[in-house]
Each structure stands twice: as C-alpha cells, then as structure tokens.
Amino acid sequence: MSDITLEIAQDSDDAYEQEDTGAVKPAENLERVRGNASGQYRYHSGLRWVSASLPSKGSKITACHISLPVYDTSLDDVWCEIFFQLAAAPGTFTTDAFSITTRPRTPNSVTWHADSLGAGYRDTPSLIVPLQEVVDDYSPSALVALFVPDTTDKYLWWDGFHLESGDVSKIIIEWDEPVAVGRSYAHIIG
Questions:
Q1: What's the CA gap between 116 and 77, in Å, rounded?
Q2: For every one of its 190 residues, what pLDDT tens digit does the chain have, with 9 covering 90 and above?
Q3: What DSSP line would sit under 46-111, residue for residue?
Q4: CB within 8 A of 35, min separation 6: which ones?
Q5: Alpha-carbon torsion, ordered 8, 11, 13, 15, to 10 deg
C-alpha cells in the first residue's frame, strides 16, 4: 500500500467562482462553497494538488478525503457535491470567467451535508469513488477537487493559501499499486 498527504502549494491552487457571473477569485484569504436558491449567492470552489507521486493509472484507491481548515463556527455548514476534474494534468485557477464550473468532472461525486462542523481542520466524506474514476483513466500529475453547492442556504468558509495562518487544504490518499502483468515464455523454451 502507498499513501500521500499533499497540501495546497500556491495561491492559484485554490479559488471560488460566483455561479451567476462566473467571476473566479483565486488568491483569496478565505475560500468558500455556498449554497443558495439564487446563483448570485451560490459559490463553487476548486482545490488543486500537484505531485509526481500520485497514484498511477490502474491503482486501486483504498482511502481518500480532503481536510479543510474551517475558518469560523458561524461559517461551518455545508451541502455540496464533491467531484474531481477528469484530467491527467489539470491546470491552476485563473480569473477567466467560469474556469471552475466548465472543467470536466468525474461521472460520480460525493455528497457532503453537515451542519456546525466547528472551526479547525474538518474532513470530507470518503472520496474513493470519484478519485478512482480519475486513476482508471490517467496517471495524474495533479488533482483538482470541485465543490458544487446545493441550492440550500449553507456557508462553508476555510482558510485559503493566501491567508497567513499557515493552515492549508490537504488531500490524504491511500492506494494499492497496479498489479504488473508479465508474460510467460515457458511455452517457447519448453
């Protein structure tokens, strides 16, 4: 079994997008996902991690979750779907309009619905299924998690990379390496 814990490494690795205008905000002090009936108040979010040591194509994901440094107890309710970007090398976040919501997503997601998470590091539910869909197709050099809000009025804010607290979003993954299939030449030698 292999495992890795990665942290957000730069300002352009976390961002949020306002749904109705597509305005994207990378390099903010606080990242967020917010549900609301109005797109004006609904925010999507994205997080990116880069490593040459991510699971390779064909690996079996055995554990995966994201740990977010929740900012405040008044902004600690969440109802969203979490996808991964379906790509081998997803890029950083820019200010280009709709550059979070237009990224290709895994077919499956995980629902995260919780109230009063509390401040400090809080873990998402298991993300094995959507991450498995990425490594079934690719040997990724980066991973992007995409948070898609529900229409219920919920707020979850967490420390962004730009905030000087030093607390950053992490992804924790465990996996079994793909089994190498060798060729037998016994019938040729025999």
A1: 5
A2: 999 999 999 889 999 999 999 999 998 888 999 998 888 889 999 999 999 999 999 999 999 999 999 999 999 999 999 999 999 999 999 999 999 999 999 999 999 999 999 999 999 999 999 999 999 999 999 999 999 999 999 999 998 876 666 789 999 999 999 887 666 555 555 5
A3: EEEEE-TTSPPTT-EEEEEEEEEEE--TTSB-EEEEEEEB-SSS-----SSTTTTTTS-B-S--EE
A4: 42, 79, 80, 149, 150, 151, 152, 153, 154
A5: 120
This prediction's pTM: 0.91
Q: What residue numbers bound the domain in which 53 lies?
A: 2-189
Phi, psi of 3 (to 5 degrees): -150, 160
Query: Number of structural domains, the chain?
Result: 1
Return the amino acid letter for 164: E
